Amino acid sequence: MSNQTQSDTAAGRPTEGRPPEDTNVRIDDITKVFEESDGGEVVAVEDLSIDIRKGEFLVLVGPSGCGKTTTLRTVAGLESPTEGAIRIQGMDVTELDPRERDISMVFQNYALYPHKTVRENISFPLEVRSFPKDETERRVEEAADLLGITELLDRKPSALSGGQQQRVALGRAIVREPAVFLMDEPLSNLDAKLRVQMRTELNELHKRVGKTTIYVTHDQAEAMTLGDRIAVMNDGQLQQIGPPQQLYDRPTNRFVAGFIGEPPMNFLPAELDSTGDGYRVRTEAFDFDLPREKAALLDESGRSPDSVTLGVRPEDIDDASLVESGPNRARFEPYVKLTEPMGSDKFLTLTPEAGEGQELTARVSPDSDAEEDETTTLSANLEKVHLFDDRTGDNLTR
Amino acid sequence: MSNVDETRTPGIDESHERVSYRSRQQFWDLIESPYVVHAVLAFAMMTVLVPFGWELITSFKANSAIYNLNYLPANPTLQTYYNVLIGEGYWKAILNSLLISTSTTVIVLALATPAGYAFSRFRFRFDNLLFIGVIFSRLFPPIGLVVPYYQIMARVGLLDDLLGVTIAQVYLWLPLMIYIMRNFFISIPEELDESARVDGCTRLQAFRKVALPLARPGIAACGILTFLYSWREFLFSLIVTSTLDAMPISVAVFKFVGDVSVSWASMAAASILAIIPTVFIVVFFQRYIVTGLTSGALKG
Amino acid sequence: MATDTQTGPGTHGYSDGLRGRVAKAANEHVVLTMMAPALLVILAIFIYPVTYMVYQSFFLAVPGVPLRFVGLDNYVEMLGSSSFWSYFGHTMFYSFGSLFLTVTGGLTIALAINHVQREYLRNTYSTVLMFSWAIPLAVAALIWNWILQGGEFGLLNMVLTDLGVLDTGYAWLADQTAALVVVTMVDAWARFPFAMIVFLAGLQSIPQHMYDAGDVDGATTFQAFRNITLPYLRPYFAIVGLITWMFAFRAFAVIYPMTQGGPGTATTTLSIYIYRQGMVNLQFGYASAVATFLVGITVIVAAFYVTVVLERIEE
């Protein structure tokens, strides 16, 4: 009798005909504390607040144990926060069961029901909500078509490859047309090649479906390629949230700087001397005058300690003979410990002197003639360097 | 074999090593040889099959022919079976056994499955303590409860009553089956339940629609074990029953041991009748029994 | 209430606050719904009788006479009685004898089966060898009782006299010493398949590459057995050993049908003693005291078992 009502309401299409700005997810100052069996407590997430806009693809990224999965599970309703609230489309869902939230989720191991066929797996969310049969059928066909798994519909999950299982899991998530998709490391079980391919497909899928998505991963490359915005977490705390390029260009602290980018940023202990109208940075490998814009940022930060950590990305160092020298480039002559040709570029492992000093990675042009066990002349782009407070790790030149 | 030896021990004492390695290895190769292995197994099979065979042979003899010193019956007969089943009314004992074992199995499964699931999935107050309590009640020696059970059953009027025997059997096998069911549910990824809940199920629906169908092999193993265990049980059935009204076959066989003499052929026929279902279960459901037993013994 | 229209009043039309509480209550309710029936049944048909047993052990409880509190009298009488200690001795002989035979037999057979290459043969062996465990215990006892009959009629005596080993049949179960050994062996006969199954599971859990590595390192078969097989089987030994011993320590269903504790009291174990005191002499209080003693020992061993099993979880 109320099939129609149900499919309109509990079915998860409440966004239609409503202003877009209130269809979002608000993670409101949540803290999650786990009690251990020995009586101890572990703070998994601390005072986390994030607003996710409608249609946005937000990636939660961080090392394992950083609290990203706990956050996602809290949004899903599989964990309840110790403090704080979750709001979906303006409604407080903190105390609601997962089924009462307008969400669907893709799990790390796909969580396909082994005893059901692909068709039954995909239709399950509709079935438990008593959708009419023809509507269910139509939606399953649509989803299968969208994901290119129509010919697999009558197989069991065990007969599918990893990539196919992944698609079925996605199908089950989109069939309900919920307000929010949650994805918990959905690509981590695929081999490297398939992962890159599925990453592209996920991107396309998101463009076509356009649903708010919260995506958890530990892989920064995945985060960079997928996210409209990325939230970097560490030790249960939000480090920085912003568009990928912003995180790359202007990391808020040393953790984010080291986490985003591959190979990771080089960190060198450095001394900072004021020279009247600017700053001089001295490291084991090279000394240079801080470019004016960076110096201005440093002044703005109001902090200018004597010792800092210098951050230089490997890709901002190149063979001096292959780049034009300029005022904002510093030349130095390190010892080349190891060269790793990658085809498109060449990775150099460097030390200031032969066999001593802190190692440094450079990603230079493949045309560079740097040889192992020799010194070579390199040039660092000073406009892209960062200085971090030794004590707090804050980026002073952001 | 010898080729491998050449490259094997480049030590100082090479020649000595190799000789002693060879001679020791030869001895163990012999121990491991198919002849020895199959001889050991043949002997073991004999200790099992000869008593079974002798019981079977005896059951085809007439009670009066037992004391002829022949291995094989001169006139094989089914008369003893007829006497036992119809004459002595032992069809009732077999029916009792079937009723008791079946209802015990149904009750135990109905109780143990959800309880095992709850132990495998939920954290609640005293959960560990309760679980250790379950392990202890499973290891508890039933002989200790013989006297109180007899007294209680007498008081509530369930002596020599099928219900009384069934209650005792439920006590005997329920804790073990909770334990085994919990281990089976633990082997089903919790992610599947969570997925079901996100897909729109309540916790109870997630149990019913996802975990339960996946636990089918475990439920089968528990059911088969419970049936077998309660079919075999002797002590409580002996105490609670006194006549064929409620006595299962596992106790009834013992009735042929009289004060003065034993009707060996009748006892053999009754024994064979008691054995047939168990052998049938072992042959057809061996895999389930093995999973159930190992899971019951080993998992934490 | 306004927000309710978003998710649909059809499924849950209660306010935010109430909804929270109901949802939470439902979750706790789930544990209760699933757990309570089983736990109530265990409480009623296990905890209650156990309590009754311990309680009664402090009373003079015989039918027809009102209960009389006697404190520790039953225990004092039990511990001071020489027959109690002799039955305790029989129980120890029986349980450790059965333990030894079960573990060595079960392990030997498991190792042998593990060496059989063809799968159908392995299955046949393990299926047939489970028969002696699967049949009703009383039947196992009676089968052997018949084989071991004194005079010339028992199968064993028939064979032995035909082979000329014995002149006349020997009364195996009438001999004070032989009877206890025989019932112990029959107990192990009915018990070894359990050990065999668990050891087989243990042997199959050993990765083949361990033996490959041993081969490369030049280990003899025996060294491989000692350094790979045995360490892997160690937890299995502990568990099989503890379970076997506990179950043999309380065993009733083999001895009672075979000898009823006789000849004399030669095969009377604590279980038989409890049965005789409680069910034949109707000394309910005293029988409960002996039962409490037996239970106490089992609980100590069971605690070891729980530790071993819990250790396995952590591995």
What does this structure look like?
The complex is a heterotrimer of chains A (398), B (300) and C (315). Helix content of chain A is 25%, strand content 30%. In chain A, β17 (335-341) and β18 (346-351) form a beta hairpin. Chain A is built from ten helices and 21 strands. Chain A has 398 residues and is an alpha+beta fold. With 300 residues, chain B is an all-alpha fold. Mean pLDDT of chain B is 86; it is low at 1-14. With 315 residues, chain C is mainly α. Chain C folds into two domains: 14-56; 77-314, Orthogonal Bundle (MetI-like fold). Chain C has helices spanning 4-7, 16-56, 73-80, 82-115, 119-134, 137-147, 155-162, 176-204, 208-216, 221-249, 255-259, 270-280, 284-314, and strands spanning 59-60, 68-69. The longest helix of chain C has 41 residues, at 16-56. Mean pLDDT of chain C is 85; it is low at 1-15. Classes of the chains: A alpha+beta (398), B mainly alpha (300), C mainly alpha (315). Chains in contact: A-B, A-C, B-C. The interface between B and C is large, with 106 and 101 residues. Chain C: The chain crosses the membrane at residues 29-48, 92-113, 125-148, 179-203, 236-256, 286-310. Chain C: Residues 88-305 form the ABC transmembrane type-1 domain. Chain C: Belongs to the binding-protein-dependent transport system permease family.
Interface with most residues: B-C, 106 and 101 residues
Low-confidence stretches of chain A: 1-20
CATH topology of the largest domain in chain A: Rossmann fold
Q: Kindly state the mean pLDDT of chain B as a whole number?
A: 86
Nearest-angstrom radius of gyration of chain B? Answer: 26 Å
Spatial sequence of strands, sheet with the most strands of chain A: 6-7-8-3-9-10
What is the CATH top level name of the largest domain in chain A? Alpha Beta
The low-confidence runs of chain B, each spanning 5 or more residues with pLDDT under 50, are 1-14
- Which word captures the global form of chain B? globular
- Major sheet of chain B: size, sense and barrel closure? none
Quick one: CATH superfamily of the largest domain in chain A? Answer: P-loop containing nucleotide triphosphate hydrolases
Q: What is the CA–CA distance across the termini of chain A? A: 61 Å
Number of strands of chain A: 21
Tell me the number of structural domains of chain A.
2
The biggest beta sheet of chain A is recorded as: 6 strands, mixed
